[in-house]
Automatic annotation (TrEMBL):
Species: Nonomuraea typhae
Stored InterPro entries: Rieske_2Fe-2S, Rieske_2Fe-2S_sf, Rieske_Fe-S_prot, Rieske_Fe-S_prot_C, TAT_signal, TAT_signal_bac_arc
Ranges where the Rieske domain occurs: 36-127
Classification via Pfam families: Rieske
Keywords: 2Fe-2S, Disulfide bond, Iron, Iron-sulfur, Metal-binding
Protein name listed in UniProt: Cytochrome bc1 complex Rieske iron-sulfur subunit
């Protein structure tokens, strides 16, 4: 037989569990944790950049400014190899892109690198 005290205790435990497990989380927090971290801000020096998984290139033209572009050269699809001297550099045919805008600085690339939207929060860089 279930006593009143046992019934109240079980009800309280069940209620607390449902609040903990079923409480709605803000959509923004869910979306942020669902997207993987591409890089940490401390790993990218000012004026430099980082190629991420051969898919993205993240640059840091100024102290608190980060940009993300496709890492595929618009000339023949080679993956860019480095970021130095204010440019993103393709090893295949020498194309260079501006780290601020992704615009072509030196061809033969016909157009700028496509820009990707990112979110910088808590020292982490994620796709937006």
């Amino acid at each position: 037989m279930l006593t009143r005290r046992a019934l109240v205790t079980r009800g309280a435990v069940a209620g607390a569990a449902s609040v903990f497990f079923l409480w709605p989380r803000p959509a923004e927090a869910e979306a942020e944790t669902a997207k993987p971290v591409l890089a940490r801000t401390k790993d990218i020096r000012v004026g430099g950049g980082k190629i991420v998984k051969g898919k993205y290139v993240i640059t840091r033209p100024k102290k608190n400014v980060f940009r993300c572009f496709s890492a595929k050269c618009t000339h023949q699809g080679c993956t860019v190899a480095s970021v130095s001297g204010g440019t993103i550099n393709c090893p295949c045919h020498g194309s260079k892109y501006d780290i601020r805008t992704g615009a072509v600085v030196r061809g033969p690339a016909p157009r700028a690198l496509p820009r990707k939207k990112i979110k910088v929060s808590g020292g982490r860089i994620r796709l937006a």
